[in-house]
Amino acid sequence: MPLVKVYSTGKRKVSEMELDERIFNAEIKDYLLHDIVRMQLAKRRAGTASTKNRSVVRGGGKKPYRQKGTGRARAGSIRSPLWRGGGVIFGPTPRDFGFSIPKKVRKQALRIALSMRVGEGKLLVLNQFQLKEIKTKSFLEVLSRFGMEEALIIIEGENFNLEQSARNAPGVKVLRVEGLNVYDILNHENLIIIKDAVEKIQERLAS
Question: What pLDDT does residue 80 have?
Fold first, then answer.
């Protein structure tokens, strides 16, 4: 089983922790990560682009001129797509770009993403991350001790001071265990997990 050191925010080694091999030492399969990231980004798309076709655009109830005798092409409505101010042919309408992937595959992709960070030496486990007050400077000082400028931080439960302190820090995101996802892990160079959160992650992904 992978063995990691557990540090305090002062960069002092507190203990060591064994990680579940099934979760933190999984076989890397890039195509699974690609599928999950594509799914997450697709679900974030607004899909609100909209146009009006000839049945929706205002006006055009009356035939503009008689059928024959004017020398012009036949026209039944001033809102024809051929006319200025008319409807749009095959224009975009609001839609949902999202698609689903089986739960087992999503779990496996999470295991792979976590295993990648362990293999790269980019996983840091802290025994806790408590701040006395909401202060971004104090938060960044902790990151600088570990030589990090940006990171994804996974916590267990509410940590108001930490969440607020990290809010304005560029390249930093704080997530609770429930929100752990592949895209954010891959989108941040470093991964910091609080010890209690590691246990929750292993419970969640063990099955």
Answer: 93
Instruction: Give the separation between CA 74 and CA 125, rounded to whole angstroms.
Output: 75
Q: CA–CA separation, 13 vs 79, rounded Å?
A: 74
| Bridge partners, 4 (sequence order) | 17
90-132: per-residue pLDDT in tens? 999 999 999 999 999 999 999 999 999 999 999 999 999 999 9
- Judge if 88 and 180 occupy the same domain: no
Tokens of 127: 């025994």
165: pLDDT strictly greater than 80 = yes
The total number of structural domains in the chain stands at 2
Structure tokens at 198: 């590691």
The SS3 of residue 173 is strand
Residue 133 has pLDDT above 90, yes or no: yes
Q: Is 4 helix (H, G, I), strand (E, B) or coil?
A: strand
Please tell me whether residues 51 and 77 are part of one structural domain: yes
Torsions phi, psi for 187 (to 5 deg): -85, -5
| Residue range(s) defining the domain that contains residue 53 | 46-96
Query: Do residue 112 and residue 148 come from a single domain?
Result: yes
Looking at the structure, tell me whether residues 65 and 155 fall in a common domain.
Answer: no
